[in-house]
Amino acid sequence: MAIGNIYAIAAVAVVGGGLFGFDISSLSAIISIPQYKCYFQSEPVPDDHSQCVGPSSSVQGGITAAMPGGSWLGALASGFLSDMLGRKRAIMVGAVIWWIGSTIICASQNVGMLVVGRIINGFCVGICSAQVPVYISELAPPSKRGRLVGAQQWAITWGIMIMF
What we know:
Elements: H1 6-13, H2 15-30, H3 34-39, H4 57-85, H5 87-106, H6 111-139, H7 145-163
């Protein structure tokens, strides 16, 4: 049975926006906790874990910039991907890429794995943030198009708010 309700289709499609917002704010929420600082510390960890300062500022900058860098690459690739597969399948590919990146981030044993996982997640964000609004606007009737496309930004904002 196919779902023909445009609101249901848009609700499913904008889930990626929520994940994007969640990912934007997730790193800022954890960089100050001791577990993160000690696990990804650039220098040897003291025995009592009281002096963990975390990654150096340049390493932390690289970790943080990995996601927007991947987003830039994903946005560039999204047009080619949607031309080959169509928008719906391109969004599905983005979801699979997100799963792979999230798995790598969760399994991170070092800064390199964390950066690679964030680049992969960013790639997905680039694909989905470029394709979801276009996909929704192609499906929605003109009278509902604005509010449904705006739901993508609304989902991003909710994702940021939920993480904080």
